[in-house]
Amino acid sequence: MTTSFETVTSADGTPIAFERTGAGTPVILVGGAFNDRTTVAGLAATLATDFTVIAYDRRGRGDSGAGAVYSVEREVEDLATLIDHVGGAAAVFGHSSGAVLALEAAARGVAMTSLAVYEPPYVVDDSRPKPAADIFDRVRALIADGNRDDAAELFLVEAAAPPAEVVKGMRDDPFWAWFTGLAHTLPYDLALCGPGNVLPAARFAKITAPTLVMDGGESDTWMRAAARAVAEVVPGARHVTVEGQDHGVLHQPDALRGPLTEFLR
């Protein structure tokens, strides 16, 4: 199956790079922190037998530009521009903070034929601490100082919330370079989630697109609670648990084929 590389210019003049594969109804894939279009490529290939799949580099990543000044509004415009580019109507799938971006875009009126999200990282119960109010400033300061290693570690420990000793061990893995390579985009994800990762229930109650909210049966308690909470506040949303999966479901894209193909058609 042929995959084509393309770019489109967002509202502020920033080039947004994407790959298009497959044929059928357009579906745009939105990755989260430490993700670019390559990390959703497996899911793109899985869905491409039924859909035209758009896997894109969010701004500041891969082959996309960063723009002069970051804001959530600019990222929403990027997604809207992609939808316009593929014909003015598309389904959207977002993972983690990419799910937050997709939800924010839908709540702000970006036209979607349907919306599917996997584990948007809101903190809605006391099963984990909320990220500190100053994490955005601390991560941004470390990046400004050129300390990408500590910025990535801080984000993982306080925002993603795996055990600190696990993250320290990750720093010795050759794959750690992937995390540090995208560390400059972590403030974008923190800005999307907002201080304390508080679920904006009133805003999401305005979403009109048919919505599917997924979590993994092996995911952390707080992530599963967040998925249920999002499904409760988005009008008419469905909640589905993908059994045997956790937050790293993009490494097992076939697990998403069934629920996404059924819902996004």
Topology (elements, then pairings):
Elements: E1 3-9, E2 15-22, E3 25-30, H1 41-47, E4 51-56, H2 72-85, E5 91-95, H3 97-107, E6 114-118, H4 135-144, H5 148-160, H6 164-170, H7 176-181, H8 186-193, H9 201-204, E7 211-216, H10 221-233, E8 238-242, H11 254-264
Parallel strand pairs: 3-4, 3-5, 5-6, 6-7, 7-8
Antiparallel strand pairs: 1-2, 2-4
Describe what you observe in this structure.
By secondary structure, this protein is an alpha/beta fold. The chain folds into two domains: 190 residues, 3-Layer(aba) Sandwich (Rossmann fold); 58 residues, no CATH class. It contains eleven helices and eight strands. The chain has an eight-stranded mixed β-sheet with strand order 1-2-4-3-5-6-7-8, with helices on both faces. Strand 1 and strand 2 form a beta hairpin. Helix 2 crosses helix 3. The protein is globular. The protein starts with a strand and ends with a helix. 47% of the residues are buried.
Quick take:
One of its GO terms (molecular function) is triacylglycerol lipase activity. This protein has 265 residues and is α/β, with parallel strands linked by helices. It is built from 11 helices and 8 strands.
Radius of gyration: 17 Å
CATH architecture of the largest domain: 3-Layer(aba) Sandwich
How would you name the CATH homologous superfamily of the largest domain?
A: Alpha/Beta hydrolase fold, catalytic domain
The domain count comes to 2
Low-confidence stretches: none
Mean pLDDT level: 97
Percent of residues in helical segments?
25-40%
Order of helices and strands: EEEHEHEHEHHHHHHEHEH
* Alpha-carbon distance between the two ends: 20 Å
Main sheet properties: 8 strands, mixed
Query: What is the CATH class name of the largest domain?
Result: Alpha Beta
Question: Taking strands numbered 1, 2, ... along the chain, how are they ordered across the largest sheet?
Answer: 1-2-4-3-5-6-7-8
Our estimate of the beta-strand percent is: 15-25%
The rough form would be described as globular
Structural class comes to alpha/beta
Number of helices: 11
- Count the beta strands: 8
